[in-house]
Amino acid sequence: MSTEQLLVVADAAGAPAPASGVGVEMTGISKLFGGVRALDEVSFYARPGEVHALLGENGAGKSTLMKILAGAHQATGGEIRIGGERVAITSPHVSRALGIGIIYQELALASDLTVAENIFLGELPGLVNPRALRARAKALLDDLGFAIDPGAMVSSLPLAFQQAVEIAKAMSRQVRILILDEPTAVLAPPEVERLLDVVKGLSRRGVSVVYISHRLDEIFRIADQITVLKDGRTVGTYPAHEMNERRLISLMVGREASQLFPKVARRTGEALLRVEKLCASGLVKDVSFTLYAGEVLGIAGLIGSGRTELARAIFGADRPDSGTVSVAGKRVSIRNPRQGVAAGIGLVPEDRKGQGLVLALPIRQNMTFTTLARYTSRLGLLRGSAERRAAEDVARRTTIRAGDLDLPASSLSGGNQQKVVLAKWLDAGCRIIILDEPTRGVDVGARAEIYQLIETMAASGLGVIVISSDLLEVIGATDRVLVMSGGRISGALSHEDCTEARIMQLALRSAAHVGADPAQPVSREA
Questions:
Q1: Which contacts qualify for 518-523: CB closer than 8 Å, 24 or more apart?
Q2: Better-predicted residue by pLDDT, 4 or 180
Q3: What is residue 508's predicted lDDT score, i.e. its pLDDT?
Q4: C or N: which end of the chain has fewer Cβ atoms within 10 Å?
Q5: pLDDT band for position 332 (50/70/90)?
Q6: Domains of the chain and CATH, by start
Q7: Measured distance CA(332)–CA(326) in Å, rounded
């Protein structure tokens, strides 16, 4: 039977029903973790040659369902069929043998091995021909459209390129079913385009693709079918062409999402942060701009444009080579994060788990460890009650959802983890908050909450910088946008003049032309 002849059967409510000829069919899947029911008789299937999006808020059960398919978890109840045959997937090895490949949101690479060695790690013989291995890896990477040196150490690559290596590793095997869990979370727009082209190519070759993403624009561009989960249950399965963003968000969060980017009435005040001719890391070149109290300033640019390095230099995570930073009119010397925090600057990094949190520590301690001196007696003893009250207060202010602040930070969803990193800087009294990729890997409901927090912080007189690869986020969540290219500010756009096309035009300007057009519209000085 051809792919075109296959039909999806759904009842009037959109609930999935068995269909013949599916690549993978999961029926009545339940999963208990202790006394917690993570999945409650969930059904899901994907046909050969189909891109099937699996959506839902964090905690809806998407990753648990896919980990069952990948053999990382075993279902408590239900059955799985591959190509119509009932199977028992008892381990990742069994899953791979069945032709199932998965790319998790969290990278699973050996940082001390080369790109080529990581791609073919599961099939390396006792003796390796490095030249032949690199040639195979290069051919695969070129086919995917990623310009990555196969002989480079993975630890030397930026996050976007590490994600590309994960993709290449999964696609190096003859997969029948490919699961992609937030594959574009660390990719810039050009890399996203390449990946979507790759996914479309795989589906044309008959691969069943299960695509998990919080980026709804990607879903509408690539998906044939959409299944929505909520609270461990199947809400329904729907043809993608029959859905729109408003309806989809409503199904995911259980309420109308009339406005993804809420706005709070506010006014800008004094020049809170002034950066002048800053150079750092060889990737930030002569950057100058001003951030005002009560303002949300966006910084856009492609991967490698210097935007993250700029944030790190301002905060003190990287030492500036030259230039000056002034806070509230006073020049400050920032050579390390301690000095950055003392100056009132907080950074929510793009890698929140690796750089923003200590996952094994309690949620409470993650929010207060930068200010422990405040809660320590003269004898060096921690005043636990004072620390707990402070943690509970800032948790309320940032709407962190946690049953117990003594649980490890690793127990939280991505959105709540991001709020904990933000809460840490609010507890420290920072007046300038820099958020690098604030909603990466965060579901649509939590995204709206984070945007609301950004608005609330600005309304209280803080200065907020939002750095993001998501152009809609940059446009919707900020008052004006600076665009970086080649380590420099290539242009500034007011909120009224800011469009995706204008941002990309400025982001793609060559270094020779940066600064050549003084007529770029701005709402204030760049």
A1: 520/491, 520/492, 520/493, 521/492, 521/493, 521/494, 521/497, 522/480, 522/492, 522/493, 522/494, 523/479, 523/480, 523/494, 523/495, 523/496
A2: 180
A3: 74
A4: N
A5: very high
A6: 3-99+176-253 (3.40.50.300), 109-173 (no CATH), 269-344+430-526 (3.40.50.300), 356-429 (no CATH)
A7: 6
With a cut of 70, say whether residue 116 has pLDDT above it. Answer: yes
Q: Look at residue 342 in the predicted model and tell me its pLDDT.
A: 94
Residue 236 is encoded by which pair of tokens? 């329904």
Closest CA to 29 of 70, 82, 65: 65
Tokens of 216: 């709804």
Which helix (H) or strand (E) element contains residue 476?
Answer: helix 471-477
User: 344, 476, 444: which is closest to 56 by C-alpha?
Assistant: 444
- Output DSSP code: residue 301: -
Q: Alpha carbon of 297 to those of 156, 301, 348, 509: distances in Å? A: 30, 14, 15, 21
pLDDT of residue 254: 64
Bridge partners (DSSP) of residue 488 are 485
Q: Specify the residue for token string 């990737």.
A: 283
Single pTM value for the model: 0.61
CA 510 to chain centre: 27
Strand partners, 30: 77
